[in-house]
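Hi Y.,

Following your request, here is the sequence exactly as I used it, all 160 residues.
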Amino acid sequence: MTDSANGGAGPLVLNVPMRWGDMDAYGHINNVEVLRILEEARIHAFGPPAGTGLPGLEVDLPVFNDLPEGTQALVVEHRVKYLSALNYRNVPARIEVWISAVKGASFTVAYAIFDPVTGAKCVLAETVLAFFNPTLGTLLRISAAKKALLEPLRGEANFR
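Below is the corresponding structure, written out as tokens. Let me know if you'd prefer a different format.
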């Protein structure tokens, strides 16, 4: 799904298929399905959380694969701004993914979704993620190694 390597800086560029069932009655990708597309982009960029699914393709930035046993990668917050309709096409949407913030126990993944034919920017979004230990009931701090892994993808926030 990765369209091009980022050469160590800037956003990752991914292609995420739009599904026929993602379309609403107006021919647009439904707003709920946009969140699914963001999730797919996030997993294709950073890999699935450890202990989920079966082995698949290696990813460029395996953010989730070295978490301690039982750790959950939780979505804390989504923010989405629709700039123009993302119309269904049988061509994957182009998604840019970068990191807009890293805090003590969370980090923010930023996205831009583009129409794959016209190149129009259709959606801006951000997802705040945190790592949670359900046994202890606590959030895990973002390690220095994880911060260093994310640093090459640092970019501007979509929202202030």
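Confidence is low (pLDDT under 50) at residues 1-6.

Thanks again,
Q.
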